[in-house]
Amino acid sequence: MKFCSECAHPVALAIPEGDNRPRYVCAQCDAIHYQNPKLVIGSLPVWEQDGEVQVLLCKRAIEPRYGYWTLPAGFMENNETTAEAAIRETEEEAGANIELGPLYTLLNVAHVHQVHLFYLARLRDLDFAPGIESLEVQMFSERDIPWDDLAFPTIRTTLELFFADRKKVREGGSYGFHSHDIVRPMRSSGAPD
Hints:
By secondary structure, the protein is of the alpha+beta class. It has helices spanning 82-94, 153-170, and strands at 11-14, 23-26, 32-33, 38-49, 52-60, 69-70, 73-75, 98-109, 114-123, 134-140, 178-181. Strand 4 and strand 5 form a beta hairpin.
């Protein structure tokens, strides 16, 4: 940040009185510009038929990670709830109609200043199509997930947790809520995760 969004004067990093972290501060109008983590919200859309579960994934048509597979997700907008954001992102990226379930994963990605939240979701039908940010949208069973072509560690973590919980559900258990810190960086093209 170089200029104050309040008065357009230059800003400088300083620790404001009563604070303990450097913030961008305007010497002209004294505005303190806080920078906080962004929320990435999405869903884990599933279809179950005859005991078989499939997950809906989107192949990214945008950077970062163009051409890699992801769950439908994106940045939360102002004036929407996390649930509304999950439904909107699923509609925008996958053209899918979902019934939103409970919050499933909360993943802190501190090294990129983000928190990723994924809700369990049930597809209401199989009428889906790629949105402008997706090259294609496809259903995958666990054995067919393109594990080496997943876009982000948060996607891999959420899917691994889901399929581990799925085994518990088949034995009479239930899906849990999971909170994790993701410390591994996003992999570069061709590099193992």
